[in-house]
Amino acid sequence: MFNPWNKIDLEIYEQHMADHEVYQLQELNQITKEQLADNDCTYVGICGIAGGNGLENINITDTNRIFAMDINANYLNTCRKRYSHLEGRLELIHCDLLSGEFTLPATTLLICNLIIEYLGEVPFLDMLNRNKAKIGVVSCVIQKNNRNSFVSASNFASHFDPLQPIHNNINEDRLKSIFNAHGFTSIKQKNYDLPNGKELVRMDFDCSRK
């Protein structure tokens, strides 16, 4: 399945995200820890798992199954090697989330961090809506650029040029409105400042509340 993300080398991606001026790999790891602690994590789905950042925060006494989804098969292979201790609980799913043939696994918590930007909020919510009966809480993170480029400045920034055609700027108020229109109830929002003036915004939505 072709997607610009298949052109992004994982080592380059992680070095960029961990750069001291970007600091998103570290921040997302802590956010994932909070997402797991704040919600029922019996069955966890992670959309856009990349190299598995945050999987070390899984408590195997609380979590029966982790569904790690990504369009890049090489990323999934790296996850398998890095997190071999989760064998039997970790299911790696090579997929295109927007494919009409794709169906989400049933989860109590679905984590979607920095992926809506590359899917578009309307297609993403349409996908969730088709799978609503399988979803408990959706916890997502979006990036507020605050007049910065969507790719943060680093020595590796040019490697992400192939992503430009599929990138969407996401506004948290519009996203919340679309979630609400699809019957999801907002239950949490938290902002995290980054060194370069950007912000990460975590937004949690519950499908079961009416």
From TrEMBL:
Lineage, top-rank taxon, reads Bacteria
**Gene3D superfamilies recorded:** Vaccinia Virus protein VP39 (3.40.50.150)
Q: By what name is this protein known? A: Methyltransferase domain-containing protein
